[in-house]
Amino acid sequence: MPVSRIFRRNAEPAAGQGDTSEWELEIRPRRAVRNARIVAVVIAAAFLAGGIWLRTGSTGVNFRVVDQIAMIGIGLVIAAAVLLLTRPRVRVGAAGVSVRNILGDNDFPWDTVRGVTFPDRKAWARLELVNDDYVPMLAIRSNDKERAAEAMEQLRELGVKYTAEPK
Q: What are the pLDDT digits (tens) for 42-86?
């Protein structure tokens, strides 16, 4: 599988994110994103169908149009929450490593990064920091198999490139 299909190099900036030309590597999960989208559509469809059919039976309870709208709204909120699982991303460049998980972005300069590991029986990789701390990288997932291995290899290569002592 060619690298160009797996990673986007020199990714274009998103709206309001400024210049991203300093990023040499951008990693995103594939299977987790696909699964999250499928689950979100199924949830939204189920709540939509449930909301529409809420008033069609004689259950002894009087449901109103407001109840139908609320049921559909709850389904859309849950589907949107599931779509948060499509956000993870790791960017690597001369400035360091930027890790975006579900709710936030964290930037780590190379002098604070000790390495990257993929612990046994863990679902995702982690960025090891110099203070014996670590940050999970949800963008590099074990269920992506070869893509995850290639991502770790390229991340380590860039780490060696940027942390090497000048001679």
A: 999 999 999 988 877 777 777 888 989 999 999 999 999 999 999
As a whole number of angstroms, the longest Cα–Cα distance in the chain is 82
pLDDT bracket for residue 90 (50, 70, 90): very high
In the chain, the number of structural domains is 2
Of 53, 85, 117, which closes a domain? 85
119 contacts: CB under 8 Å, gap ≥ 6: 126
Other C-beta atoms lying within 10 Å of the C-beta of residue 55: 14
CA proximity to 135, closest of 150, 114, 152:
114
Decide if 47 contacts 72 (C-beta within 8 A): yes
Q: Do 26 and 58 meet the contact criterion of CB atoms below 8 Å apart? A: no
Same domain for 101 and 134?
yes
Q: What is the pTM of this model?
A: 0.73
* Strands 23-27 and 105-108, sheet pairing: unpaired
What does 37-48 look like in DSSP terms, one character per residue? Answer: HHHHHHHHHHHH
Q: How far is CA 157 from CA 25, 40, 47, 116, 162, in A?
A: 11, 36, 47, 11, 9
